[in-house]
Amino acid sequence: MNLTVFGATGGIGREIVRQALDAGHQVTAVVRDPSRLDLRGDALEVFPADLTDPQRLGGAVAGRDAVLSGLGARGRKNAGDATRLTRTVLRAMEAEGVRRLLVVSAAPVGPAPQDDGAVDRGMRGLVSAILKDIYADLREMEAELARSSTDWTSVRPPRLQDKPLTGRYRTVVGGFPTKGRFIARADVAHAMLSMIDDEGTVKQGVGVAY
What is the CATH number of the domain that holds 180? Predict the structure, then answer.
């Protein structure tokens, strides 16, 4: 497949690029600073862009089979980035007639498991209160997706870890795995790539966790 990856120098974005290249895909990595991307390959195109101009991004998404985004706020001071940047990506995709989009959100944005225990409910409530601005941003981002004409999927992980790829995790379409407290960034990337052709995840939030 011919893929475009936004946020390609971030923890999840870089893993998407690496795994996609390993799987034999053609990859366009959209980055603000090309020097921060240390991946190389004949199938990799590095596309410098500041993500403020949908017309500029048209060349990065035109003719692609799917777009995958690891964009989001890096902290509470940057809350609002996920919505703003994703809106620009959506405009570029819609202008070029590209439909498939997968983005990273977060577990608290979606519904909690019906059989969550008291510990998990408490942790979820505490984290949601501390990071309320970030989660408000992600909810608005998902609202932008729902208003778009794209075939989107929002992947909602819990606490992220920098650990090796396992390929073993649980997913719940429209919900979240019970007692799903952690997942490696590498496995989030793996899940996103595996969902590209999964019609059951289109226009859905998908919880993913160990």
Answer: 3.40.50.720
Those residues with Cβ within 8 angstroms of residue 206's Cβ, 6 or more apart along the chain or in another chain: 153, 154, 155, 156, 171, 172, 173, 174, 191, 195
Q: How many domains does the chain have?
A: 1
Which range marks the domain in which residue 139 is found? Answer: 2-209
- Which residues lie across from 208 on neighbouring strands? 171
Tell me the pairing of strands 151-156 and 100-104: parallel
**122 to 36, 76, 107, 108, 133: CA distances (angstroms):** 38, 21, 14, 12, 19
List, for residues 2-25, the tens digit of each pLDDT value. Answer: 999 999 999 999 999 999 999 999
User: What count of Cα atoms within 13 Å lies in the side-chain half-sphere of residue 33?
Assistant: 4
| Strand bridging mode 204-209 / 170-173 | antiparallel
pTM for this model (two decimals): 0.91
Residue that has been written with the tokens 């070029």 in this structure: 96
Coil, strand or helix: which one is 190?
Answer: helix
Cα–Cα distance for residue pair 86/71, rounded to 1 Å: 7
The Cα diameter of the chain in Å comes to 50
